[in-house]
Amino acid sequence: MQPDKIELVCPAGSLPALKTAVDNGADCVYMGFRDDTNARNFTGLNFGFDNAKEGVRYAHAKGKKVLLALNTYPQDEGWQRWTKAIDNAAELGMDAVILADPGLMQYAAKTHPDLRLHLSVQGSATNYEAINFYHEMFGIQRAVVPRVLALAQVEQLMAGTEVEIELFGFGGLCVMVEGRCALSSYATGDSPNTRGVCSPPKSVRWQETPKGLESRLNGILIDRYDADENAGYPTLCKGRFDVQGETYYAIEEPASLNTLELLPELVRMGIAAIKIEGRQRSPAYVEQVTKVWRQAIDNCLRDKSTFAVKPAWMTELGKVSEGQQQTLGAYYRPWK
Amino acid sequence: MKLALGPVLYYWDRDTMLSFYDEMADAPVDIIYLGETVCSRRHLLRLQDYLDMAERLAAAGKEVVISTQTLIESEYDVKTLRKIAENENFRVEANDMGAVRLLANKLPFVAGSTLNIFNPQTLDLLAGLGASRWVMPVEMSREALVSVLRNRQSGIETEVFAYGRLPLAFSARCFTARHHNLQKDDCQFKCLDYEDGLALKTREGQPFLTLNGIQTQSALVHNLIGELDTLQDAGIDVVRVSPQAHHTGEILRLFREGMEQRLTSAQALAQIEGLMPAASCNGYWHGKPGLDFIRNNPLATV
Question: Within an 8 Å CB–CB cutoff, is residue B171 touching chain A?
């Protein structure tokens, strides 16, 4: 029998975050270039060529892998920006590129046949027929599955494909199928698919009013907070809205995904890797989350039958969770 | 340009669906897309019912296309997909890459808007696999579309979602069930109560979105009837109208008259307004936020 294994894939929004992730036990880090070729296209974040080079050198020197997210959909006017990014990834010796667009996968497979391809969560592949499509057409070797499937559905999916499966384990939770959500461009003009951003900071306005602190996105009221409430970033699906006279989190509460308690099950299923969300978060976040997950995975791989989540881990993760709340998301079927 | 009717995105009862399509058999529309694209729990019409309806509409002279479900989650969903892909009588609209795999290199298929075709490379790739038509993503602008069409190699037909509440997002969670504090697996088919979806407003009463089961739509109605000349100039082959609970036949007639230049864009826009469940938006076509509305011809505004 093969020994149990599962890779820990951590976010690197900057060189300090990358080094922190590597030093605290990540098996892989993932990063993006400083433009709209990736789905965390935020000011002050991401890597230029030289920074990326240093990041790859640092990680490789410590025996860790680096993955490059090129997971937006190339717009025709900027096509060369995306192909150049693929060329750069090959030149930098990236261990894999994470792609969503079939045209770009075709380019990568033809131009750099040795470059390993992963299917991004933005590719919206929720079934094995879709995953096998990308595998047969372009040779993708791993797929990151959208955060919409129950665990039993993930297992069913795995039975139909030989492609490795990577799941989100912790961090911000998209309640919509990634790659199939245009809510942000409907409200602001920019979306993950087209510009690599969701609910972009440039569209956010905070306003103190007699009714409370208001958060707006391109003028649209996303939420209003009483003095005793913690205000959160106005991601538009996590606001409070009015449906038939009732005001509530109509789409999703502000909460972070946390699947720590599912770890033995994920290992048993043969999940190849667990992804931590949060390239937009600070190196301090990366440090805290990587440390906890490293310990948890090591404990679990030693003996998954006796694995138990330590309260201290949950406390640590709770501190960096959105709204200090955590959820199992769709992995737990009743959430749906 | 040809006129198409998209699949019904809401959950209507069986009799309503049958009489709706009886009416559509006589409506001035060239192409009819049929099928459940939103939720596999909606079962009042089964695949065989849709195929029977397809026969009747084809006999009435319509080009019929069977549309597949957008979010394929379970083995049951995959099985349904396989049955649709194996039908030999009707073209299929693939709304997921899983459907593309099952349809590739067989009969010609339609590449649906959720396949996210944003560049000519991807478009040509799908055309090479047998797509004979593609529907551009709802969030794509005219400028981006023109660029794709200029640089593509294939002669594939282009369709645009031109009227209806925009299908903006899909989730595993059912927001209609959530509103009723029900779990999705025990949703009691609440969608049946909302023939045009369930309105979501901001806390200051601005209509923002529409909840339709696992699908989230715009509150405003995306409406390109005032843009038929720019659609024509952009090289669009097919204009899609998405069904709503009332007046769909009249809306199709106005689009037809606009396309045949029997109505000016200003006239068509003025006449359609009384038939809409909400105000118009068209920002996406202009490269703006989708909820914006921009008048095609400034002279038409008073």
Answer: yes
